[in-house]
Amino acid sequence: MMQFIRPNLIFLFLFYPFIIDDASSYESFEFILPDPKSEKGAECRNLNIYFCMTRFVTSSVNSSRVALWNDTIEIEVLSRYNYRSINWYSFDESENTACCKFQIRTYEMFGQDHGISPQDYMNKMTDFSSDGKLLRHLKVRYDDYLCANVIIGISYGTIRHKITVFGGHPDATFIVPLPYVGHHVITFERSLLKDTLTFDWFKLNVFCPGQPWICMKYPVIAQQI
After folding, report:
1. pLDDT, averaged across the chain
2. Cα–Cα distance between 48 and 44 in angstroms, integer?
3. Is residue 173 helix, strand or coil?
4. Virtual CA dihedral for 43, 47, 49, 55, nearest 10 degrees?
5. DSSP one-letter string for 156-193
């Protein structure tokens, strides 16, 4: 069934390709990868050569919490303190700095509107534990030279019936644009994505090289490649 996007969500969907989930209950953590041949990937690459966080999304609503007058002040303070450590940069062309109007709007739409306090939203954004984080969506572009789907956007969260892939070639393998692989490229088969492109693999190869504190606080216990 087709779902319609609210007008005040349009600016976020210009940057992030993932659709609103049709599952009854879900959580999703979404990232852009620094692919130099995609618009937002190139912008991300100028900020961090491993990844850029975009948002935390949930379908749950805490109807008992009402928005407070100081929510925007609190999320701005939290964002200024944390955005560099999680690569949560602004990609809004109307904002000339890396923080924090964009982060405030993201919280208002995906945190405050769902009854989540600024501190709880930031706790979610900075939680890189592996529990409950399974591959959900991929945004890719097909590279003729590599004959592969280059992953330019990815989300992890609660399970779906199947992984949704936006773009690319249906028969091509998938690669992650890592800055240190040189001529050695790790490929992922479409049929094995769920078992190989795990959150632990991504944490070990992308998150932790980009932000070493992540593996210090949330170490990889069992690695699947």
Report:
1. 86
2. 6
3. strand
4. -80
5. EES--SS-EEESS-TT-EEE---TT-TT---EE-GGGH
How does pLDDT run across 194-216, given as a tens digit for each residue?
999 999 999 999 999 999 999 99
57 to each of 20, 129, 192, 205, how far by Cα in Å? 9, 16, 25, 24
Higher-scoring residue by pLDDT: 207, 159? 207
The one-letter amino acid at 150: V
Asked if 70 and 27 touch (Cβ cutoff 8 Å), the reply is no
pLDDT for 74-96, tens place per residue?
A: 999 999 999 999 999 998 877 88
Give me the half-sphere count of Cα atoms (radius 13 Å) on the Cβ side of residue 133.
22
The H or E element that residue 52 is part of is: strand 52-58
202 alpha carbon, distance to own chain's centre = 12
Nearest Cα neighbor of 103 from 79, 128, 71 is: 79
